[in-house]
Amino acid sequence: MDKQITATLEEQMPQWLETAVIPGLSLALINDGQITWAKGFGLANSQTGEQVTSDTIFEAASLSKPVYAYAALQLCAAGILELDRPLLTYLPPAQQTAEILFDNIVNEPRLGQITTRHVLSHTPGFPNWPPDGENLRILLPPGQQFSYSGAGYMFLQQVVAQFTQHDPLAFIENSVLQPLGMAHSTFVWNEAAAQIGPVAQPHDAAGVGGEKAMWPDMYAAASLHCTPTDYARFMLALMSPDSAGAAALDTALLQSMLSPQIQLNDCPPWHDEWPCTQVALKPDLFWGLGWGLQQENGRFAFWHWGNNGNFKAFAIGFPDEAMGIVLMSNGRNGDKLWRTILQHTCGSNMPALSWLEGK
User: Fold this and answer.
1) In DSSP terms, which residues pair with 32 in a beta bridge?
2) Which of 209, 207, 200 is nearest to 21 (CA)?
3) What is the number of structural domains in the chain?
């Protein structure tokens, strides 16, 4: 990443943040297989005036999912989990029809078809989350089409925790966070977790600050708290596996993680017409195991976004070029800057962002 790019970001970011009404933003850049620059801009807390630094911790939201996917694939490498074995078969017969996800999962025959591959590629047939007050149902046949689902990740977390007898938090810390040196990362946020570093406070669309919510329990789908630099360390485990040490993933599984499993379509589960089987496929967008995949003019990238309301995040890596970027913001408008920043740093028109924007 040349000095002109970082100089432009230094110069323009304050105005970009002000125009978009975004209190604070932090980013980390990867170039030549290394984290070459990390910087915080704006305010972590508009009420106290605390500044964002490269050590400020943000809610990473759905950037949680690739981290948990990586841990699940480590279980596959160890022979503990199989990608294509139905998840319920790992449980004793008495538990295979139990309410093991939330308190309102609908037990039906198709529940017994869902595999780890289905969950990681977002093809279990679940909605993103069950509607308020309604049961969680399978609305599309497992494996039929892409349909983004946080509920699927929670289903996987629950099953894995039960059959391995691993505490989910200890499992993710021991398998990914600690071996990769992600010292400013946690999947819970409580008083003890608050000791790992300064945390950004959430802000609404008008830039008005609120109180940071606690996350006392781990959610594989959404509860990761970290810095962009820590998340870039995780991305380097995919781009430069030799740097991952004991946490390095089996080569074949790593290739599967970054290989198309399903093509994206134009009806994500947050659209009003979902579920719809008459969908238009996106020729340049796919999902791997845990990551979105983008092909643009011969350039391959893996990517993911995060949206916890007043926290927004985005990460993208170009493994063939050993480059990438992680962006985190503590404002509801944070995603309004993703395209501008990515065009300056990656030179991409970002079909992934167009899909997220419904274009």
Assistant:
1) none
2) 207
3) 1
Dump pLDDT digits (tens) for 194-222: 888 899 999 999 999 999 999 999 999 99
Distances (CA, A) of 6 to 37, 271, 316: 8, 37, 17
Sign of CA dihedral 258, 167, 148, 180: negative
CA–CA separation, 301 and 260 (whole Å): 11
Side chain identity at 12, as an amino acid letter? Q
d(CA 1, CA 89): 48
Amino acid code (one letter) for 164: T
Q: 3-state secondary structure string, the chain?
A: CCHHHHHHHHHHHHHHHHHHCCCEEEEEEEECCEEEEEEEEEEEECCCCEECCCCCEEEEECCHHHHHHHHHHHHHHCCCCCCCCEHHHHCCHHHCCCCCCCCCECCCHHHHHCEHHHHHCCCCCCCCCCCCCCCECCCCCCCCCCCCCHHHHHHHHHHHHHHHCCCHHHHHHHHHHCCCCCCCCECCECCCHHHHCCECCCECCCCCECCCCCECCCCCCCCEEECHHHHHHHHHHHHCHHHHHHHCCCHHHHHHHCCCCEEEECCCCCCCCCCCCCCCEEEEEEECCCCEEEEECCEEEEEEEEECCCCEEEEEEEHHHCEEEEEEECECCHHHHHHHHHHHHHCCCCHHHHHHCCC
CATH of the domain at 22: 3.40.710.10
Rg of the chain over Cα atoms, rounded to whole angstroms, equals 20
Could you tell me the pTM of the whole model?
A: 0.96
For 47, the domain range is 3-356
Q: Return d(Cα 154, Cα 223) in angstroms, integer.
A: 11
Residues of the chain under the 70 pLDDT cut: 1, 94-103
Phi, psi of 269 (to 5 degrees): -70, -5
Contact 199, 169 (CB under 8 A): no
What pLDDT sits at residue 79? 96
Per-residue tokens: 187: 């999947």
The pair of structure tokens assigned to 81 is 């989990």
Contact partners, residue 285, CB within 8 Å, separation at least 6? 263, 264, 292, 293, 294, 295, 351, 352, 355
